Amino acid sequence: MSNPTRAGRFADSTATSSGASPSEPAGRILQPPLVRQRPQPFGDLSQADMDLIGKLAGDLPDVRTETTRERRLLVVRILLRHLDQFPGGTWQERWEASGLNDAKTPVRDRESTKERRAFITTGLKTVLALRLIQPSLEAFRSNKFMGYQGMFLPAQGDPLVDQFVAAVSRHEVSQVHRDHALFDVAFALTCHGLSFADLSPEVMLYHSQECRRLGLTTANIGDPRRHQGQVAWQVLHRMGHFPDGTPARMKELLLPGQRSIEELVAFRPIGSGPVRQLIIDYLTRRASEVDYSTLKNLARTIAHTFWRKIEAINPGQRDLHIDQAVYAQWKAELRVRENGAPRTDAEHILLQVRSFYLDLHSWAVEEPERWAAWAAPCPISRGDLRGFGARRRRLQERTDDRTRQRQPLLPILVAHVETRFEDAQGFLAIASSATPGASFVHEGRQYRRAVEGPLDFAGAPIIHVRDTESNELIDVTASEESLFWEWATVEVLRHTGIRIEELVELSQLSVRQYQRPNGEAIALLVIAPSKTDRERVIPMSAELFHVIAAIIRRLTRNGRKIPLLSRYDQHEKTWSAPMPFLFQRQRGGTLAVISPQRVLKLLSRRCEALAGQHVGFHGLVFTPHDFRRLFATELVNSGLPIHIGAALLGHLNLQTTRGYVTVFNEDVVRHYQEFLLRRRALRPQEEYRAATGEEWGEFEEHFDKRKVELGSCGRPYGTPCAHEHACIRCPMLQISPKMIPRLDEIEIDLQQRRERAEREGWLGEIEGIDLTISFLQAKRIEGLRSQRLGQHVDLGLPNPAAARRD
Question: Taking a C-beta distance cutoff of 8 angstroms, is the pair 11, 26 a contact?
Answer without folding.
Answer: no
